[in-house]
Amino acid sequence: MKPPTAAAAGGGKGGAVDPSLPRFRCQECRRALVVVGVDSYADRLPANAASGNHASSVQGSVMGASRMDNSYVVLSRQNRSQGPGIPPRPPSAAAPHTEPQQPTRAIEGSYIVLPPPAASIYKTPASEGGGAQLTPPGVNSSSPSPGNNSGFHSSVTVLKRAFEIASSQTQVEQPLCLECMRVLSDKMDKEIEDVNADIKAYETSLQRLEQEPYNILSETDFQKEKQKIEEEEKKLKTTIEEAERLYSEVSSEMKDLEIKSKQFEELEERYWHEFNSFQFQLTSHQEERDAVFAKIEVSQVHLELLKRTNVLNDAFYISHDGVIGTINNFRLGRLSNVEVEWDEINAAWGQAALLLHTMAQYFAPKFQYRIKIHPMGSYPRVTDIHNNTYELFGPVNLFWSTRFDKAMTWFLTCLQEFAEFAISMDKENNVPPEKSLKLPYKIDGDKVGSHTIVLSFNKNENWTKALKYMLCNLKWVLYWFIGNTSFAPPSGPGHTQSLKNKS
């Protein structure tokens, strides 16, 4: 439905809106409705009333409204003309006041037309009694107005009253446009069809019930059935009470469970917070632990390296320089083609004396240290079992070196006694014979292997070999000493074996 245009509310081309015209809206879609009740309302006005402002405004409003192709509510012409209190159609003298631009043809649009029987009931008390006619709101009754204008407002009042009565009787707000009326009509038709279907179903059921045979109970049987039904009713009431009691108990349990569920959710949330915190702390501790373990591994590697590091082996490094044996890179011996100074030889004897003295002192008093060795740098001395002291350093004369020869012989005897003590210690510790200490060169008096250690009337080559064999035996004893005093040598006695092979 189209809303009313400006021409429907104003007179002429620029006339003001007539406040006396009602503004009706569809109660369903809320669109504006223009209500016209009289065809060519200007014909009803007297000729001299055309010059009045109010009459011209009403005329313009009505004539302007007659041009609208919208939805209208139109009273039938019979009721408009025959009803009491409504003036007859005025002569056509008012027609010249109609503007040529305004067509006077019949309105082509959607209409809700009140039929004559329906329109006859919408008579106001004023029209029935022939008394004063009603004036719509907004119009001053004391102001002079033509009689025809009063009849028009009475028709509008009748329309309002008709809409009110229709709304109260049909329970549908009036007025309605044609489209909304059609929707409402279709809805009501559907409801009527549903009601008719229900009526038919009820009638069918009633007919079937009337056709069914039934037996009339006697008074006794009726009382029995009644008593039986009452007992069942009591049982059902008891069951209902029990169910209600159980329902109340279940409701109370549900409330308790809800409270516990909320507490559990709070505990769970707190648990996860604590779990995340603990997980974070655990990750931090694990990283710290891994770092500590890495440091421990590095420290263990260093510790193993230190354990394998032999202080005595590093302090007294025994090796060889060709045929000549060395200790801490000091050569011990000389050849006819290799002249070694006595200062170097004395320093080598001092290192060998210090090594043997250190090992002998470590096992004292278990080891009977009968022959005393006095390490004194490059001037060592040896004291025999008779407390006679001999110098273990040179230079000496090749033909007269008795004291130096005795010092070397007693040193070799002390080394042999310490080796015998080591073998006895292996026997006490149940060391297998193949793993027990065994000197690579046999010591017999002043001889090592097959060479004597005495310098007098001896060749330099033989004396040098004897000293080399002596250093080799000293190194074997050193390795045994390290193994029995919780020190691990960095390498096996292969070094000593190389000395033996090169000899």
UniProtKB/TrEMBL annotation:
UniProt-annotated stretches for the region Disordered: 1-21, 78-103, 122-153
InterPro entries attached to this UniProt entry: Atg6/Beclin, Atg6/Beclin_C_sf, Atg6/beclin_CC, Atg6_BARA
Domain Atg6 BARA: 306-481
Coiled-coil stretches: 185-270
GO BP annotations listed: autophagy
Source taxon at top rank: Eukaryota
Keywords: Coiled coil
Residue ranges of domain Atg6/beclin coiled-coil in the record: 175-303
Species of the source: Urochloa decumbens
Name this polypeptide is given: Beclin 1 protein
Family the entry assigns: Belongs to the beclin family.
Compositional bias annotation for Low complexity: 136-153
